[in-house]
Amino acid sequence: MKDKIKVIISNNQSAVKIPSGIRMLIRRCCNAVLVNEKFSGSAEISVTIVDDVEIHRLNKEYRNIDRSTDVLSFPLGVDGVYDINNDTGAKLLGDIVISIEHAVKQAELYGHSLNREIAFLTVHSMLHLLGYDHEAGGLELVRMREKEESVLTQLGLVRSGSYYTVEE
């Protein structure tokens, strides 16, 4: 039996109308990361689209950070070991939560499409679900950025500028 990737996408907000094609884009991003990372076996990923109020609440509850953010990742695996869905045999990779309001603002800020921003956030989170971490900066951050750009380029979503803005 061929490996299957199941991406469960829920839209739990009404602040922004989700453009057509976004769900397929999210699925393509999840698949591309798994292929790039040579992930073997079937997998399940949950992606939830929320507003800034809900992601703020989750960020405060789970990370003790009292502000909204663009995306949160909730990995279910540790060191490549995952819980298994007993019905399907699929590895449960975890949950991705995207703030669509944040994504819209960042797409405008960075001067690229909403599709590019959502793809970036999805790829970024998928790497977290697979155990990558950039919080300490340094080489891990560089490795994650390289992997993100590699996947986005494969998907035809080449970066048009910098993700970093200078705050004054």
What report would you give on this structure?
With 168 residues, this protein is of the alpha/beta class. It has a single domain, classed as Metalloproteases ("zincins"), catalytic domain (Collagenase (Catalytic Domain)), CATH 3.40.390. Helices cover 42% and strands 18% of the residues. It is built from five helices and five strands. Strands 1, 2, 3, 4 and 5 form a five-stranded mixed sheet that branches. Helix 1 crosses helix 5 and helix 4 packs across helix 5. It is globular. 30% of the residues are buried. The C terminus is likely disordered.
CATH class: Alpha Beta
Quaternary organization: single chain
Protein structure class: alpha/beta
Shape: globular
What is the level-2 CATH architecture name? 3-Layer(aba) Sandwich
Assigned CATH superfamily = Metalloproteases ("zincins"), catalytic domain
CATH-assigned fold name: Collagenase (Catalytic Domain)
User: What fraction of residues sit in β-strands?
Assistant: 15-25%
**Helix fraction bin:** 40-55%
Q: List segments where confidence is low: pLDDT < 50 over at least 5 consecutive residues.
A: 162-168
| Domain count | 1
> Mean of residue pLDDT?
90
- Got a strand count? 5
CA gyration radius, whole angstroms: 16 Å
Q: How far is it from the N-terminal to the C-terminal residue, by CA?
A: 55 Å
Tally of contiguous helical segments: 5
